[in-house]
Every structure is written in structure tokens, then in C-alpha cells.
Amino acid sequence: MDQNRWRKSSYSGDESACVEASRTLDALRDSKNPEPELPAPGLPDLIRLLKSAPADLPNVT
Predict the structure, then answer these.
(1) Cβ-contact 7, 23 below 8 angstroms
(2) Which ranges are annotated Polar residues under compositional bias (predicted)?
(3) Whole domain around residue 19: which residue ranges?
């Protein structure tokens, strides 16, 4: 697997317990268990939605 294909959040630091997104935003994977890759065709839309959300949204539990 091409390591340059995957991007980990900068918030993760050196932690290995995180989700990585493909650079083309069409798949996700668990950094501890990189196989299998999970298709994520709606990821670009989700990212746009999250970026447009107000920063002061209340926590939902």
C-alpha cells in the first residue's frame, strides 16, 4: 500500500489510534489496522459540511 496515499489528522500527533483519509478522499482506514480500506464516497461532502458549521455548536450527548 502506498503510504503517500493516506493522510492522518494533524491533531493526532504521533498517536497511532486514529482514522486516516485517503488523499483523494474516497476511502478511510484505521491506522492500527490499515486493511481493509473502507469506501467513503460522501467524505468530501461531509468535510464541506463540517467546515461550514458554526464553531459554537452545542455538544450532543
Answers:
(1) yes
(2) 1-13
(3) 3-47
